[in-house]
Design a protein that fits this description.
Layout lengths: L14 H7 L5 H7 L7 H7 L9 H4 L12 H4 L28 E5 L2 E7 L23 H12 L6 E6 L7 H12 L6 E6 L1 H4 L6 H9 L3 E7 L8 H12 L3 E7 L8 H13 L3 E6 L14 H14 L7 E4 L8 E2 L3
Parallel strand pairs: 2-3, 3-4, 4-5, 5-6, 6-7, 7-8
Antiparallel strand pairs: 1-2, 8-9
């Protein structure tokens, strides 16, 4: 029977927790491991002062040694451009603070609620739209979780809960099992969606404990991974997603369109093809949320549309993700180029 977060036992690290505890947090260590020059370390360290570098070893091992333009490296290495202040970018680019009715809940869309399950991530992506999110204000005590669950019970129009964060799978499985059982007891909720990057960067996160509580729920469960480049997909990730699929869990992917990372038709087509080879369905291709510190990743709208049309010309329709933008105040993602 699921237990409450107040009575969670203390466990020794499982493999994924050990990997999480050993993440690289030093720009110098990261560059040295990749055989790259360290002359610009002071700039990287300055950029990391407000948003720290954090990357698991398993993700670093997928980077190309000696390549400063590696698309995986560019997603995690702090750079000088992050220090620029741009009036067109903000600390709350999708205005989530306006949709935070109770601690731990973001309710932007009528029938879907997002729960900030964990403030922690396994990797600090430099383009993260929540890099300035007030996680301290959304840290939950048991009483606050009960209040969040009451909010769900009192909103019969809600039929789907989305676990988010941080990264929701940074939370331990005893808590996730308890929370899922509580949500399952609310009759009008029928779907559980988990948006996570953790299994991508630490595939061992898909373990027997996680699969046990996912299998046992009556809720229709979907895991939405966050993969931006084909090089992120390796055998260990394929093995992890196979476990989810074998457990009856649907697996989708969302990508952020990023300058210098995946801003070519060839990169995006290769990603969709490799996702399908790994039994993951392309879902969303997001335009960058205009978060302060990430403007150097942005791509002009007309170029994004050109790339998307090239994808449509080269891929079958089922491998073309929806090109979307998050517009504050809208009741859903805004489809682009339709």
């Amino acid at each position: 029977m699921p237990i409450s977060p107040a009575s969670q036992p203390i466990n020794l690290f499982s493999d994924w927790k050990a990997e999480l505890s050993q993440c690289i947090t030093s720009a110098e260590q990261l560059l040295q491991q990749l055989g790259l020059r360290t002359e610009d370390l002071s700039v990287a360290q300055q950029a990391a002062a407000t948003f720290p570098l954090k990357v698991p070893q398993s993700f670093v091992e997928r980077m190309e040694f000696g390549n400063p333009m590696d698309p995986l490296l560019k997603q995690v290495l702090p750079v000088e451009a992050e220090l620029d202040s741009n009036p067109n970018y903000s600390h709350d680019p999708v205005q989530e603070s306006q949709y935070n009715p109770v601690s731990g809940i973001v309710h932007k869309y009528r029938n879907r609620v997002l729960m900030i399950v964990s403030p922690n991530c396994a990797i600090n992506c430099r383009y993260c739209f929540r890099r300035h999110f007030p996680y301290q204000e959304n840290r939950q005590s048991k009483q606050q979780w009960l209040q969040a669950l009451d909010y769900l019970r009192n909103k019969p129009e809600i039929n789907e809960v989305i676990y988010s964060g941080g990264d929701p799978l940074a939370a331990n499985d005893h808590f996730l099992s308890w929370l899922t059982a509580q949500i399952e007891s609310i009759a009008h909720i029928k779907r559980l969606r988990i948006h996570t990057r953790l299994p991508v960067v630490i595939p061992s996160r898909i373990d027997s404990q996680l699969l046990d509580w996912l299998r046992s729920t009556r809720l229709k469960s979907i895991v939405v991974l966050h993969i931006n480049h084909a090089n992120e997909i390796d055998r260990s990730l394929h093995n992890a997603t196979s476990k989810l699929l074998d457990a009856g869990i649907r697996v989708l992917n969302q990508t952020v369109l990023l300058k210098g990372v995946n801003d070519s038709a060839s990169a995006l087509v290769a990603l969709s093809e490799k996702l399908f080879d790994t039994d993951i369905m392309p879902y969303y291709l997001h335009l960058l949320d205009p978060v302060q510190g990430a403007g150097h990743f942005d791509i002009p709208h007309h170029l994004a549309l050109d790339l998307y049309r090239q994808m449509q010309a080269e891929l079958p329709g089922f491998l073309v993700p929806k090109l979307v933008r998050e517009n504050p105040g809208e009741k859903s993602k805004t489809i682009q180029g339709s």
